[in-house]
Amino acid sequence: MASEITTGGLLLAEYAQIKEEQRNRIGFRDNLIYATLASMAAVLAAVLSSKDRANLLLLLPAVTLVLGWTYLVNDEKISAIGRYVRTDLGPRLVALTPDGQPAFGWESAHRSDPRRSSRKYLQLAVDLGTFVLPPVAALVVYWVNGPYDALFVAVSLVELGAVGVLTWQMARYADLAAGPADPTN
Fold it and tell me: What sections of the protein cross the membrane (predicted)?
């Protein structure tokens, strides 16, 4: 019995530590939205304050890509922590309890909300609107206005490819499943 309590205590300590990491990542991820908006404003201010420098718009995709990748990585780690608690840590703790009652019910219960799927689609739209739409718009404005220096055009095409990859990854990791049926989500 003593080893079960010790093991259970260790599992609860792990849970507390991993939830703290998840909280920190959520705060950091959410602040990336503000950093992105501030960065976009700074780039647009630089573009608007200089005449005939539409090539400065090429800074916007670079900035939003870096922040978007960072947002995506943190969002995936947040989801991975929840998945780990639901599929690994929780079941190990349940195995130690005499009554076999589920542990950490909230980790699965909040995924059963019937509106979860629509919220996830809306969140994907917000993420794409924040990290994909502005750089694409900046690229279009650049392509319409120039200057058409070969280096700038090449940079813009590379940025468009990177934005495409970011879009694909955001959609891939959006966790659009309706509920907890798939324990890997």
Answer: 32-50, 56-73, 121-144, 150-168
First to last CA, the chain: 34
Residues 42-88: pLDDT tens digits? 999 999 998 878 889 999 999 999 999 999 999 999 999 999 999 99
The pTM of the full predicted model, rounded to 2 decimals, is 0.86
Report H helices in the chain.
Answer: 2-49, 59-84, 90-96, 106-109, 116-131, 133-145, 150-172
Give, as one character, the DSSP assignment of residue 87. I
Structure tokens that stand for 38 in this block: 């501030």
Would you list the domain boundaries of the chain? 2-172
For residues 16 and 102, give the distance between their C-alpha atoms in angstroms, rounded to a whole number: 17
Both structure tokens of 101 = 């009652």
Rounded to the nearest 5 degrees, what angle is found at the Cα of 55, between the Cα atoms of 53 and 58? Answer: 140
Helix axes 116-131, 133-145, angle to 10 degrees: 30
